[in-house]
UniProtKB/TrEMBL annotation:
InterPro entries: YjdM, YjdM_C, YjdM_N. Belongs to the YjdM family. Transmembrane segments: none annotated. Residues 4-32 form the Protein YjdM N-terminal domain. This is Alkylphosphonate utilization protein. Residues 42-111 form the Protein YjdM C-terminal domain.
Amino acid sequence: MENLPNCPQCGSEYVYDDGSMLICPECSHEFTAEDVAERVYKDANGNVLVTGDTVIVIQDLKIKGGSGAIKKGTKVKNITLVEPEDGVHDISCKIPGFGSMFLKTSVVKKA
């Protein structure tokens, strides 16, 4: 039996192959095997990032709805890479003095 990926929408393991498409019988989501390929996260310099890395912010970042800004050179430890819900912010982290927030990989470099 083939080793098919779980449904990317609902996580169901009962996916079946229908020619060129994979179909989930639980949520009716149709997708291809390329749609669920593992994503590679890269920093502003093209270095591959993994969960747990330490990164450095490469530009001043204004905080929407907050006071102050995250200064260039701020070190962020133990990042978590996430699938972006908004399509943009793919790092979840805690920044000292600011708390939990999301960042773009394009504004950080690997430490």
